[in-house]
Structures are given as structure tokens and as C-alpha cells.
Amino acid sequence: MVREDLINSAVSFLQDPSVAGAPVDQRIAFLRSKNLTQEEIDLALQRAGSEPPSASPQQSQVQPYQRPPPQSYSQNAYWQPPPQAPPELPRRDWRDWFIMATVVGGLGFGAYTVAKRYIYPLIAPPTPPQLEQDKAAVDASFEKAFALLDQLATDTQDLKSSELARTEKLDTALSDVESVIGQLKDASRRRDDEGRRLNDEIRGLKDMIPQAMESQKKSADQRLIDLATEMKSLKTLINNRMSAPAPAPRSPNPSAPTFNPATGSGAAAANSTSATDPTPAEPTPTPAAETKPAVPDRSSTSSPYGRSMNGRAAIPAWQLAANKKNQEAKEKSGTVETPVENATA
């Protein structure tokens, strides 16, 4: 089915004087671009009085019909100027081929020069002089490397020796420090032991002081009691002596020594106080030819209970000796003398 409106528009387009001079192929291509079929194009060409170009069967087979994209066909599009046909390719003569050969030869010579100067030295094997030069450079590098290795070995040996010396010094210092620490530990241990011993002794002394004071108090009380008993016995003895009559004189016996009555009474008093002092007063013998008065002089009597110059009773010699012995014994034992003992002395 043909479209008459499109065919009429194509006929008016083909009859346009500006389009009549264009080749038939271009006009047919334009009509095909306007979405006309081959049948419509043939009808338009027949009506316009133009013969359609004879197409060979091979050409029709090679160029199948391609439907252009749908476009709105307007009548005004036919009045536009037709597109210009591409210009024909210029024909090449010998000059073109000469220019092309010259350009290609220049490019090839340039590539050859570049390859020979820059690429060939990179891929070409080295020459004997280059080998000798490279060998000398390698030998110099090896000598330098060996010198550096020798220097490194020397430096390493020096560092090793210095490190060994420093290690020995450190070991010596550490041994000294350990010995000092051991001595300090021993001293601290001895000090701790001494402190514990002193604490034990102080604790023992603390416990012994009340006992010693108690025993000393008991001893002092006992001595005071003994002293009071002795004083009572002395008082009784003195009263008895003063109240007793003078004895009658007797003839001296040349075969037996005579005793002083005062000395005998002193010996009796000493025997009565033997509980406090174990040393008794020995009697003083007198020669038989010597005669004694009936009443002996009190100032010349040898009784230990004699009186002093002011009339008071003096401390007997035996009591002084006993007191001295007690003081020496206390000094040896390390006990402290109490004020009670000083009073009794």
C-alpha cells in the first residue's frame, strides 16, 4: 500500500529545479531518509519523469534495505537545500608516492639512529675494554668492601675486648657489693641477736629487780631484827655488869692463864649474837705473874662493847669486819646496797 501524500511530496521535491541537478543516488538517499519505501521512491521518480538508476543484482544483495528511524515527514523538509555530496578522492601520482617514500625513509633512518645510539648499547654484549674496565671497577669495589670488613673486624674485636673488661669490672663490683651486703646482713643479724639478748636480759633484770628488792628488804628487816635483839642483849649485859659487885681478888695460878672478866663477858655476849656473825671473840690470855686490879678501868678494857670518847657505845671490831665482808661480797655479786644496809653499817 503506497502513501499518496508522501509520493506527491516526493514528486514535488524531485521536480524542484535546485534538486534536479543533483545525482539520482543522492535524491534517492534523501527520500529513503524520509522513510519512503523503494516502491514509493520508484513511483515518485516515474511521476517526476526521472528514471530510477539501474541497480545490479549483486548490489541489491549486498545492500539490504534498512528502514530508517521513524520521523515525521513534513512537506517543508523538501524545500531545504540538498546535502552536498562528499568530494571525490584525489588521484595519487608519482609525486605523492615519492613524498611518502621520503617521509617513511626519514622516519626509518631516525628510528635506526635512535636504536643504534640508545637501544643497541643496552642490549649489545660488552667489548673487551669495557669488560676490563668493569673488572677493574669490580675489583676496586671488592677491595673497598674487604677493607671495610677488616675495619669492622678490628672495631668488633676492640669492642669485644672493652666489653670483656667492662664485664670483669662489673663482676668484681657485683662480688664486692654482694660481700658488703653479706657483711651488712651478718652485722644486722648479730645486731638483732644482740638486741634480742639485751631485751631478754633487760626483761630478766626487770623481773629480778623486784625479787632482789624483796629479798634485800627481807634481809634488811632480818638484820634490823637481829640488831635490835643484839642491842637488847647488849643493854641487858651492860645493866648486869654495872649492877654486879666487884669480884674478890684471887691468887694467880702460874700454871693457868687468867682471863679478864670483861673479856669473858664480851665472849659471852659474842656467843649470844653468833646468829648474825659466825666469828666469835677469842679470850685474851694474861701472864700469871701480872696482877690485875679488882675493878678494871673501863677505858682500858678490851671488851668489844666499850664506849667512845663522848660516852657512847662504839661499834665492835668484829661487826665492822663482818660488815666489810658483806660489802665485798655484794660488790662481787653486783647487787645494789640499800639505804637500810647503810643505816645498819
Descriptors for this entry?
0% strand, PEX14, 345 residues, Pex14_N, mainly alpha, transport, peroxisome, Arc Repressor Mutant, subunit A, protein transport
Structure report:
- Residues 44-86, 242-345 are annotated as: Disordered.
- Residues 246-255 have a biased composition (Pro residues).
- Keywords: Membrane, Peroxisome, Protein transport, Translocation, Transport.
- This is Peroxisomal membrane protein PEX14.
- It is found in: Peroxisome membrane.
- Among the domains are: 4-79, Arc Repressor Mutant, subunit A; 260-283 and 308-345, no CATH class.
- The chain has helices at 4-14, 17-20, 24-33, 38-48, 57-62, 94-123, 128-243, 261-272, 317-333, 339-344.
- The chain starts with a helix and ends with a helix.
- The protein has 10 helices and no strands.
- The longest helix is centred in the middle third of the chain and has 116 residues, at 128-243.
- The chain is mostly helical.
Q: How many helical elements?
A: 10
Low-confidence stretches: 52-79, 252-311, 335-345
Q: What would CATH call the architecture of the domain at 4-79?
A: Orthogonal Bundle
CATH topology title of the domain at 4-79: Arc Repressor Mutant, subunit A
The gross shape turns out to be: elongated
* Average pLDDT rating: 72
Largest sheet: number of strands, sense, barrel closure: none
Q: CATH H-level name of the domain at 4-79... which superfamily?
A: Winged helix-like DNA-binding domain superfamily/Winged helix DNA-binding domain
* Fraction of residues in helix: 55-70%
CATH secondary-structure class of the domain at 4-79: Mainly Alpha
What is the end-to-end distance? 176 Å
Give the percentage of residues in beta strands.
under 5%
The whole-angstrom Rg is 82 Å
- One letter per element, helices H and strands E, the order comes to HHHHHHHHHH
Q: Structural class of the secondary elements?
A: mainly alpha
The number of distinct β-strands equals 0
